[in-house]
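Prompt: For my understanding, could you write out one protein's sequence and backbone structure tokens?
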Amino acid sequence: MAHQHSLHSKSPRLWIYGVHAVQAALANPARVHHKTLLTANALKAIGTPTTSYDIVKPLHLTQELPSGAVHQGAALLTDPLPVPEIEDVLTGAVAELVLVADQITDPHNIGAILRSCAAFGARALILHARRTPPLGGALAKAASGALEHVPVILATNLARAMDELGELGFSRFGLAEQGEGLLSDLADTAGPIALVLGAEGTGLRRLTREKCDALVRLPTSAAQPSLNVSNAAAIALYELARTHNRPE
């Protein structure tokens, strides 16, 4: 998967905005800072950056950023983070947990999933490289700083990435309404777990399902069997953190 790095190197600069997202990005030594724009109020909330910054009026930020950006007075123009390969991040340790997202394209959902990954100890998030929005902007805002802490692996071939997870000793469980067992049944699963989620509406693709060792479900009611994918991810990650020993 060495080609994943070249995908990153051709990516354009992007904006990260929102107080928590910018604060976390400024504290990340892996980030390249091209321009930091802060209002006086945002500077008080974030603290004085160690790199150069400009104090601006809110209107200046609104004009600088994409339409509709909820910037909270803080914005950072930066390069995308380096894209790791699976073997760079995942060791195959007994308590490892990774989340795989199959064609989830909404930046707010991905950002929220990243936030849950950080909160509940997931080691990485694996996305499809060609169906993923830029790792900045609305996605970074929704992640509320988690983009700086959870490695995002961009797989050009998700099925191949799942094969590689299997070779590393991961049990691959797809979350689906049609799952025969409950997610809570994984409490006794030994070794690392890869939780696989599909897009809302379409769910897991056929090939992705075939790469899973089993399908599991949440104990939802018949009146509302499905959840927003980011909510389902949060519940599932919490359940796995609670029942499947995670490293501190």
Notes: The chain has two domains: 3-78, 91-243. Residues 1-10 have pLDDT under 50 and may be disordered. Residues 3-78 form a domain with the 60s Ribosomal Protein L30; Chain: A; fold (CATH 3.30.1330). The radius of gyration is 19 Å.
